Amino acid sequence: MTLVALATPFRRSRGSVTVETAAVLPALMVVLAAGLWAVAAVEAQLECVDAARAGARAASRGEALERVRGGVLAVAPAGARVVVTRSAEVARVEVSVSVRPRWGASLPSVTVRAAAMSTTEPGVMSVTGPGEE
Question: What is the pLDDT of residues 37-74, one digit of tens each?
Fold first, then answer.
């Protein structure tokens, strides 16, 4: 057997790794993009939870509802919707936001929500501010 005969089978598969990589690379990019989108959604969810908790604590202490709402919006992700309610027994804050990937404006958004409740401290009146329920 000559050296040329030994090299012939390897020549046929030459470049196959490049072709396989080119075929798999788009799928890998889609998986990476989906992972990044999921991380962004989880981050927004955690920010909503933190904002709702802080708002419920402030509302239960008797802070003005507009001030509570402003504080929640400062902590919540951009574009969040906030609903603050307070009764004689319970203060409740709901925060929701739609998360859309920055790189995919045509992709659907995911809405994340968080709500927190806190027992109203004694002496706090059940007051509803303008724009609140």
Answer: 889 899 999 999 999 999 999 999 999 999 999 999 99
- Neighbouring CB atoms inside 10 A of 95's CB total 30
Strand order in the sheet with 110-119: 81-86, 90-99, 110-119
Which residue type occupies 8? T
- Is 48 in contact with 115 (CB distance < 8 Å)? no
**How many domains does one find in the chain?**
1
Q: Is residue 11 in a domain?
A: no
Q: Give the C-alpha separation, 66 to 114, whole Å.
A: 19
Query: Using CA of residue 42, residue 48, residue 51, residue 56, what is the dihedral sign?
Result: negative
**Structural domain boundaries enclosing 45:** 19-119
What predicted TM-score, i.e. pTM, was given to this entire model?
Answer: 0.73
**27, 53, 62, 67 from 86: Cα distances, Å:** 49, 14, 9, 13
